[in-house]
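Structure first, sequence second, as always.
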């Protein structure tokens, strides 16, 4: 299928804005700019003919105060509380209390008391030195405007010039383990050709934990203590590591499917893919050696102190994906 004739103009417009950088550029992501951790990948994608990124996020830790609309749908939400929201300027949209696109420092010697509570703009209930009675002041957390601690993995939206280009991106994403990737937009271009949008994403590393609520006075109250917040941060930092590995796998998979991509001076084989390649090569050598020995001596006969079993050959073939 032919590429859209309107795509080059769209790509030029996006790349011109991207080249300005800083405050002059904004994409469609919530942050509005390209994360430093994903900048090189974005440039590599945009160097491929038929592709251009429209929004991106390298992955982030965030603390989010949800919208009061969910409370208003509950029958117990009072008109008095709605009036308080209007007087305080509380909008129907939720808001970010904290966001970071890099892991957070957790070295104990650097942390002051209530470090993460303060960082996330939360208050721990007076006398709440333990987890007992933290929710005693509210009727039900489900009827409150909740505060969430989230880890959100990498996501990229890539506009493509044709279905073939979209398929190339999608296959690379699936090869990298970004299983929830897919084509999300089939609107035709002005010339009638299709310019599919591909969302590169994975929810496997995502997490969402309720850690607090907004009380009737507007205070942001935590229902977990500092130690619990620290544990959440430690887990999120580990997910940053795994998120980076998936991001790198996508980068190399896309390179393998596009021979014309501009190579980086730091270009090298993905260490995860290299490990799998070396393992497969070792298994093939073992199977070849065992077959050579089986041609020289009967099965079940010891050779070099080892018994050559037919089951071992079957196991090696299964690991290499050669058996039916």
């Amino acid at each position: 299928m032919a590429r859209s004739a309107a795509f080059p103009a769209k790509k030029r417009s996006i790349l011109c804005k991207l080249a300005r950088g800083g405050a002059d550029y904004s994409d469609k992501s919530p942050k509005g700019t390209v994360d430093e951790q994903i900048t090189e990948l974005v440039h590599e994608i945009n160097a491929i003919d038929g592709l251009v990124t429209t929004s991106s996020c390298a992955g982030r830790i965030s603390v989010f105060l949800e919208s009061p609309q969910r409370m208003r749908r509950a029958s117990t939400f009072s008109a008095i509380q709605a009036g308080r929201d209007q007087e305080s300027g509380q909008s129907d949209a939720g808001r970010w209390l904290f966001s970071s696109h890099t892991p957070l420092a957790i070295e104990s010697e650097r942390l002051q008391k209530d470090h993460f509570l303060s960082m996330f703009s939360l208050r721990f209930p007076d006398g709440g030195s333990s987890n007992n009675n933290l929710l005693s002041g509210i009727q039900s957390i489900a009827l409150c405007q909740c505060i969430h601690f989230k880890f959100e993995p990498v996501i990229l939206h890539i506009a493509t010039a044709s279905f073939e280009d979209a398929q190339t991106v999608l296959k690379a994403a699936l090869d990298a383990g970004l299983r929830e990737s897919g084509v999300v937009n089939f609107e035709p271009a002005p010339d009638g050709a299709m310019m599919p949008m591909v969302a590169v994403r994975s929810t496997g590393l995502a997490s969402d934990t309720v850690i607090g609520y907004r009380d009737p006075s507007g205070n942001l109250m935590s229902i977990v203590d500092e130690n619990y917040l620290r544990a959440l941060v430690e887990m999120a930092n580990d997910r940053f590591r795994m998120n980076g590995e998936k991001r790198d796998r996508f980068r190399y998979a896309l390179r393998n499917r596009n021979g014309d991509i501009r190579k980086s001076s730091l270009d090298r084989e993905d260490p995860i893919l290299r490990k799998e390649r070396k393992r497969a090569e070792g298994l093939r050598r073992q199977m070849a050696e065992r077959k050579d020995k089986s041609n020289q001596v009967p099965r079940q006969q010891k050779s070099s102190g080892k018994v050559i079993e037919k089951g071992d050959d079957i196991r090696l073939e299964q690991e290499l994906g050669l058996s039916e």
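Margin note: The chain is about 40% helix and 20% strand.
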